[in-house]
Amino acid sequence: MKSRFYPKCIYLLTILLLTGCGSQAHVLRKTDVAMGTLVQQTIYVSTEDNKITSDIIDEITKLEQDFLSRRLETSQVYALNQNSGSIQEVTGEMETLLRECLEISEASDGAFDITLGPVIQLWKIDEWAGVNDTAEYSLPTAEEIRQALQLTGYERLELKASQTETQTMAKLQMPEGYVLDMGALGKGLALDHLLELLAQRSQVSGATISLGGSVLTYGSKPDGTPWRVGIVNPLDPQKQLGYLKLTGNLCVSTSGDYERFVEVDGRTYHHIIDPATGYPGESDVKSVTILSESGFLSDALSTACYLLGTEKGMELALEYEAEALFVTHTGEILMSSGMETIFKQNETR
Ligand code: AMP
Ligand code: MG
User: Fold this and answer.
1) What is the dihedral of CA 42, 48, 54, 60, to 10 degrees?
2) Quick one: which atom of ligand 1 is closest to the CA of 125?
3) What average pLDDT does the segment 244-266 reach?
């Protein structure tokens, strides 16, 4: 079994004093693991107070524990899944998220579907990054997939407003056995939370934070040069294809078949599931990178665009005013016009 490797406990905090242009900025660099993935922070601050880096990890962890996780009993998603089949009240933030997800499901002709939980559990995608012995893994059978698919379908999620004496709460109804899975958007949503957190800290002048396949840029660098966000070469993931030159507050997410996969009998199965078949999606896309002001959108759209393929995927990205960069299985690069102006291809890749 091949899997991504996350070092168990990496803790690296560097404080460098940068002097230049008459002003002083400290740079904080930190690498941790949160939300089951590597979190790399580079934060420019005007004081030596480095609490911001741990606040960022706390924010990501809180979002997972209280809100998004399918596996942790403390989360809202866990509770919704446990009580599928009955009508349940949801918080305002959950209502907004569910509505936005349903909108992307519609816009992507069902390629994006957060109700794929039963199929994702069947493939044991969560374990692919941890199990190292292929012998322990057996593929789901066609019959198992057929049955799991019967418990999926965003069209059967119903959100209704419900009025109490003091407030309007939304209620969610989904069929018994449904399992919501927020894996396609969780890291992007976390970036939105982090952008808000950074904006509340006046001592932060600039930052870049990467969370698995999603990266944010915030503010500016002390020397005024653009942020550089590397794009992995999906045909040779140890190398970079190039980088994006970005200024300001932006989010970049990449979905690709190299990110999480399992090999069985010489065949590779990846983690982006086609809701129509229950099997890993097959399009002309090897990886797709989406740039947006919204982390949620960059992440959700990257998953949807992977499944839709270059043509329909590009249409979807443009519909959401996002920029897109597709790499096909043959290594061809296709970009939206805005992306062309900010992508710099490496000479050697
Ligand atoms: P990403 O790496 O952002 O493309 O997200 C992939 C993750 O989203 C998978 O690990 C699953 O948890 C979940 N997922 C897989 N296929 C889909 C899909 N078609 N729609 C929504 N979520 C999906
Ligand atoms: Mg995604």
Assistant:
1) -50
2) 10
3) 95
DSSP string, 264-301: ETTEEEES-B-TTTSSB--SSEEEEEEEES-HHHHHHH
How close is the Cα of 184 to the center of ligand 2, in Å? 4
**255 within ligand 1 shell (Cβ under 6 A):** yes
For 193, phi then psi, to 5°, come to -65, -40
Q: Which helix (H) or strand (E) holds 205?
A: strand 204-211
Q: pLDDT value at position 133? A: 58
Ligand 1 atom nearest the C-alpha of 126 is: 10
Between the CA of 16 and the centroid of ligand 1 the distance, in Å, is: 38
Distance separating alpha carbons of residues 61 and 64, to the nearest angstrom: 5
Nearest to residue 283, comparing CAs of 235, 327, 322, 218? 327
User: Which tokens hold the place of 13?
Assistant: 């905090």
What is the CB-side half-sphere exposure of residue 173 using CA atoms within 13 A? 7
Instruction: Tell me how far apart the alpha carbons of residues 268 and 258 are, in angstroms, rounded to a whole number.
Output: 10
Closest C-alpha among 348, 319, 313 to residue 334: 313
Q: Give the burial string for 302-320 (b: 16+ CB within 10 Å, else e).
A: bbbbbbbbbebbbebbeeb
pLDDT digits (tens, 9 = 90+) for 267-326: 999 999 999 999 999 999 999 999 999 999 999 999 999 999 999 999 999 999 999 999
| Whether residue 241 has its Cβ less than 6 Å from ligand 1 | no
Residue whose Cα lies nearest atom 15 of ligand 1: it is 272
State pTM to two decimals.
0.92
Q: Which atom of ligand 1 lies closest to the CA of 307?
A: 19
Separation between Cα atoms, residue 215 and residue 284, nearest integer Å = 24
95 lines ligand 1 (CB under 6 A): no
